[in-house]
Amino acid sequence: MLPKEMVAIAIATGAPTLRAIGTAPKFKVGDDIMTTNDHVSTHTRLPGYARDKRGTVVGYEGAHVFPDAHSAGRGECPDHLYRVRFDSETLWGKGSDGPGAVYLSLWESYLVSGDVS
Amino acid sequence: MRSIADMGGMQGFGPVDRADDDTRFKAEWEAKTFAVNLLSLAAGCFNIDESRYSMENMPPADYLTTSYFEHWLYSLEDLLISKGVLTEEEYRARIAELTEKEAGHAA
């Protein structure tokens, strides 16, 4: 139980989700990736419109609590988190309203290598 | 699968309205819902990811016709019951009590 004198501090600083992890990140900035197409019926932070799509890693944000596991009572299971860029055209096809991009913070579990070779 | 909360790319809801950026609570119950939620999180009754998952599990028609803080209230009630902080019976009894009180006021 949080002591009552800590409540104001907890609310002001939030609950950081950055964690230590024993494995090295699989991807680096500039890597092409594909998102998975796992249509799970449980909680996930991979939006439906960004599944099975090609993108580029533009940033690495450290390892964070993995919401898919944490929401289901499976513990924090920290996983590497990346900033990934998707071209509007890739996501929306003919419905795209011109050049542009969507940036998503995505966990490594949602990504596979996008190398075509 | 996609939950009703996964609305990116759906049409028919109109453009995102940025005109109303007033983040203040619009009613007393919103502030209370927010406060009880945060304190329940701080006390470890449930975590933020369980809270989001619970909101996503709202019946879709209810999700679309209720406000932001009603989503919070739904997940708060859902989790306090499923985590055993409240029983379903206690929850129903309290609703019945309040309904009766309200009817008394109206009479």
From TrEMBL, chain B:
Q: Which InterPro entries match?
A: CN_hydtase_beta-like_N, CN_hydtase_beta_C, Elect_transpt_acc-like_dom_sf
Annotated ranges, domain Nitrile hydratase beta subunit-like N-terminal: 1-102
EC assignment: 4.2.1.84
Gene3D superfamilies tied to this protein: Nitrile hydratase, beta subunit
**One Pfam assignment:** NHase_beta_N
Enzyme class at the top of the EC tree: lyase
Q: Which UniProt keywords apply?
A: Lyase
> What is a single molecular function from GO for this protein?
nitrile hydratase activity
Q: What is this protein called?
A: Nitrile hydratase
User: What species is this protein from?
Assistant: Rhizobium fabae
